[in-house]
Amino acid sequence: MKPKIFIDGEHGTTGLQIRAMLAGRDDLEIISIPAERRKDPAARAEFLNASDVSILCLPDDAAKESVSLISNDTTRVIDASTAHRVADGWAYGFAEMDKAQGKAIAASRRVANPGCWPQGPIATLRPLVTAGLLPADYPVTFNGISGYSGGGRQMMEDYVAKGEDAPEFLIYGLTLQHKHLPELKTYAKLARDPLMQPAVGNFAQGMVTLVPLQLGILDRVPTGAELHAAIADHYAGIDNGFVEVAPLAPVERSSEIDPERYNGTNRMKLYVFANDKRAQALLVAVYDNLGKGASGAAVQNMDLMLGG
After folding, report:
1. Which residues form the catalytic set?
2. DSSP state of 247
3. pLDDT in tens, 230-244
4. CATH architecture for segment(s) 116-289
5. Which helix (H) or strand (E) holds 78?
6. Which residue pairs from 181-185 have beta carbons closer than 8 angstroms and sit at least 24 positions apart in sequence?
7. What is the value of pTM for the model shown?
8. What's the fold here for domain 4-114+294-305?
């Protein structure tokens, strides 16, 4: 029998993208609540319990409710909300984060899909902290730009409604308490709260994250080559991963660093730029906030859980 997949919230942005990614798959059975029963809690419970894997594309409270409706010990869950990303009993769904993470996801009944914003900084920082090149208490700051879909439903609606009058560049999260900070701190192995300054551009999807490093404050200053080697070695040891590391190169600019470059894919590309004389470096990640940052990661995690 084909595994039954239920997407709870299939008509939202992430749910629609997952449906599109699974549309050509004949190894799965996608089950959906009939339109006339969509608002019936009993129908949600029925489909959640009938599935082999349920993917939750819902706000936090609704995601928690869906989990509570599962009464069997066979339905496995991938939650794309923020609700369970640092919760006990949930595997974090960034498969390339560690060599063993893919196996942890495959073995788990509960997987928390990563947020889009933290993945790039986690991807670059965690290998450096693990290798001892950055201390856990390093004062991390990061910024970046995402398509307006990265700002949530309200921001998407605002941008679409404004059309040509929408801002080309809009910073947000100015209260400095973005909801993704707990997972970034946890999975980048940081001992202090990072400072995050997100921005959106007038394009729908895709993103670039940037982590600047003032290496001169460290007791032992690593070179750019050492930073690059630690990150490259980490991802070279990940089987079947979707994260690649660009060669270390002293360039002034690169057309590859385009937030829309990997749209519609599950790919992520990492870069290290450094000036050893100044003891400074910049860690860059390029990926699709709705791909590797949402639906692409969810499908990757589903395949791992199903043994693919």
Report:
1. 116
2. P
3. 999 999 999 999 999
4. 2-Layer Sandwich (3.30)
5. strand 76-79
6. 181/118, 182/85, 182/86, 183/82, 183/85, 183/86, 183/92, 183/114, 183/115, 183/118, 183/122, 184/117, 184/118, 184/121, 184/122
7. 0.94
8. Rossmann fold (3.40.50)
